[in-house]
Amino acid sequence: MIQLNRRAALGGLLAASPIAFAGASWAQPPVAPTGSRLIPVEEDEIAITLDAWTDTYGRPTASTTINGEGPFAFMVDTGSTTTVISQRLATLLGTINTGEAIVAGTTGTTITPVTALDTVQTGAVTRERLRVAILPDTGLARGDGILGADVFAGKRLHFAIRDKLVRVEPTKRATRIAPRGNMRLRNGMLAEVDGRVGNISAKLMLDTGADHCIANLALGEALRTEHPRLERVSKVRVVGVTGHKILGEYVALPRVDLKAFSVKDAAAVIADASIFKLWELEKEPAMIVGVNLLSRLSSFSIDYGARVFDAELASASDLIARNTGAFG
Fold this sequence. Notes:
Number of helices: 6
CATH architecture of the largest domain: Beta Barrel
CATH topology of the largest domain: Cathepsin D, subunit A, domain 1
Shape: globular
Low-confidence stretches: 1-22, 28-57, 316-328
Helix content: 10-25%
CATH class of the largest domain: Mainly Beta
Distance between the termini: 30 Å
CATH superfamily of the largest domain: Acid Proteases
Number of strands: 26
Strand content: 35-45%
Oligomer: single chain
Structural class: mainly beta
């Protein structure tokens, strides 16, 4: 049995690619603390480039200040509907727990302390009195926290992969030009698009916090029927941000098609991940789209206000230069 704890090498199929999984979501919708609001600043008029880089696993990470202190390294995670801080950072800041909440990761749920931060600032984007979860340090690797979609509500996130830049832009107004990819917001904040994996229609969740794609069992069964000759590695153990472990099967995927792009050579872990039950996506094919697939793009954007996803494929020379394995 092979255990995957953030990074691993699975022979020729996985090469030396790292693997980790989606961020956290509230298992039950949280009640916003009194006075919670987005501070009106100039990002409504102009685009702001975050002080960003990529972590060990290729995921976009932004310089962030908390309560005026920092900067700290926070992963920009479109798969997490809530912002998270590490226990180490909570101790450093001397935060006061305001209660507990059930937080759902990809592999399981956990009861975790919550606190309200006075300010969370990245670039010119600032949130006041933001309710956040506190997770053990082990679930966040070396990072200080996760910037969830709650920080970027109503905005457009643009990821320039080749240049390792993340920009926060005003939402694009409706135009007569058809969008490259209409997007839904599941559970209020999770970016979801329709696509195809080989011959199979599937719902796809866009997740910059996941190193690799994660497919549910319904998609796994459909792939076995429609594409029985796919290369597979069985009995792969995966560990999520909440510390829960599950077994899965690593599979080389057929072509993945979205309205915005097509990718021929991605791979995914097929697993009975509890997050699909929370999303009510157990019975229909669905997949979390992670950085191993998103890194095939030159750039992409997620517009939470207009509910549009757009992307441009990377050139062959760009992929070779980046060694095809990471978000930059």
